[in-house]
Amino acid sequence: MNKSMVKTLLLGTSVTLLAIALIVYPKEALEGSVRGLNTWWKVVFPSLLPFFIVSEMLIGFGVVKFIGILLEPFMRPLFRVPGVGGFALAMGMASGFPSGAKITSRLRQEKQLTAIEAERLVSFTNSSNPIFIFGAVAVGFFHNPAVGIILALSHYIGNICVGLVMRFYGSAKPKGQVTQKPSLSLAFHEMHKTRLKDKRPIGKLLGDAVTSAVQSLLMIGGFIILFSVLNKLLYVTHITAVLSSGLAYLFSLCHIGTELSLPFISGLFEITLGSRLASEAPDTLLLHQIIIVSFVLGFSGFSVQAQVASILAETDIRFFPFFIARIFHGCFAVVFTIFLWDPLRESITTFQASEGALPVFSHLESVTILSQWLNVYGPLLTIFTLCCYIYIYSKRTFLHRS
Questions:
Q1: CA of 45: how far to CAs of 67, 96, 129, 135, in Å?
Q2: Structural domain of residue 230, as residue ranges?
Q3: Superkingdom, according to UniProt (predicted)?
Q4: Which of the four, 356, 378, 386, 391, has the lowest number of CB atoms within 10 Å?
């Protein structure tokens, strides 16, 4: 039996077992599906939609090319990617995964990146956004905004370290590449040339941006729901418990609470559930809980990785370097969490002891308010946007047929 036949057998068996589990545990599957759907239409869709639309328009109008020329002296020496990578990095940090993969794939389609440069760039431009770290994890799960400080610092510094490591990935500088000295005039000239090259009217470009964003978000929503159901089924079939029991021995050798093995396994599949279970783990040190969450955020979970793999499949960007980078990111995040614990421990424990009194991090309250706003008004924005998408899509389909 060759490798291809073994792969076919494994895939067929896995899907069959999943179908059987759906039949045996329909109630649990429904609960997982509803939980994933709520996450998507309340938070993910409304928070990512503006970034996806704006990024498409910025690429079409040539603004990304303008930014790329100016950031060339910064991005090229540090990360061995063109200056346009700075745009992907900033948008990825602001909006969260999988924005970095979406923007990187678009830049690759526009031939502003080589395949190797795109693989380097996508490895460190996908990160969790501040709203999720502070609003959902720190405030929602740990009930402590100060925890968000150490999680965010370790997460974003670790991501930059991944970029510095991945600069050594791939071949040397491509032949024929000419490095131009950046200037405002050159940047504006390239921006103007890029805009003229894209001959779409503004209305057409805006419509394409909306439809492209919604299609990507529908795909992301499908993966979120699928992995939410999968995680629930793994839990009720006790597969997660079996895996965590084997991991508990390793955790005990590292002097980490064995109760965190189950949240760790859950977090490998889906970061939200893993982070929540880690925050609720009994008889465990807060530092150990934060370490587990830091790794889970860096690894991103198989759910996010599947989303990225689907986006990258539209290009010649390989997924494997991204997967290795996620392991690096998780390890870097753990190391920085340990280093930052002593300087920030007093602030974190002081807030815990205050039991809800106004903390010194009161400026983070706006992040919490935004998270609450998304939870209330996010579904309305999602429904409105889907209606606009249906209108644009049906109108274009009708015009095409006529």
A1: 27, 12, 14, 16
A2: 27-164+181-401
A3: Bacteria
A4: 356
d(CA 282, CA 279): 9
Distance (Å, whole) CA 83 – CA 72: 4
Q: Is there a domain that residue 6 lies in?
A: no
Please provide the distance, in angstroms rounded to a whole number, between the alpha carbons at the two ends of the chain: 52
pTM of the predicted model as reported, rounded to 2 decimal places: 0.84
237 to each of 21, 220, 232, how far by Cα in Å?
A: 8, 26, 9
* Range with lowest mean pLDDT among 171-185, 203-217, 336-350: 171-185
Q: Which two tokens stand for residue 216?
A: 């990507």
Asked, for residue 130, whether it belongs to a domain, the answer is yes
**Each residue's pLDDT tens digit, 4-61:** 888 888 889 989 998 999 999 999 999 989 988 888 888 788 878 888 888 888 888 8
